[in-house]
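Practice problem: Polyamine aminopropyltransferase
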Amino acid sequence: MEVWFTEDQTNDLRIGCRVREVLFSDVSPFQKVAVLDTVEFGRMLTLDNVIQTNLKDEFVYHEMITHVGLNTHPNPKKVLVIGGGDGGAVREIVKHQGIERVVHVEIDQMVIDVAKKFFPELSCGFADPRVEIVVDDGIKHVKDNKGVYDMIIVDSTDPVGPAVGLFSEEFYRSVFEALTGDGLFVAQTESPFFNSELIKQITATVNGIFPVTRLYWAVVPTYPGGYWTFTMGSKMYDPKTVVLDEAKIAALNTKWYSSEIHRTAFMLQPFVKELLPR
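Answer key — structure tokens:
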């Protein structure tokens, strides 16, 4: 008997993956958590039947949500990750030798436990002594920690359920206050094909709070449309004009991110430019 996992990416678009085995399935206080062994993408994490990550394409997302900002800020020492319980973002952050502390705030303990068991390739960074894992609400954490972090990464799920508040103006203002004087943040901000109004709203909101606002993109095959965006809000540094340390980037041992990708990620197609504040 064939077993397939299907995700309704929109009301009119569905993606399907053939499944060898369901490795884990349970319901946490926040969401349904499942780990699937798929034929095409290997082990895959889903939350509420939505693909979060998988072993085949995860490196694109995790490298782009971390290294663009970490190579824009000249000396990031303290980094906060909100969400991203699979650990992929933390894995990339700890590659940077100058990092002194990484605080990873994930609301769902089950996601962390599942990542440690089924995704050691992603969660390996949790073992780094610079990493502190906090099981708590990320919105509350940023409100309670003002002026602490050089960089904040919002590695959230889609803007439904427990993640809705991570896309609000109030939250972005709290992020601004939680950053140091020259800090910056990066958030995943969905697909311009299917979430154009959300991108308009986020970039306009961030533009009203931060001196520098930039939208950039990457290709993540299992996310809706394959074209995925990230939004950066920076108090001082512009990722489009920063002088990149080529030797430092080469030492990161990345599969997608590079100095060339850093620069070209901000080259937006005309239909995407139309979503930005005038």
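Discussion: The chain has a mean pLDDT of 95. Students who identified this feature from the tokens alone can consider the problem solved.
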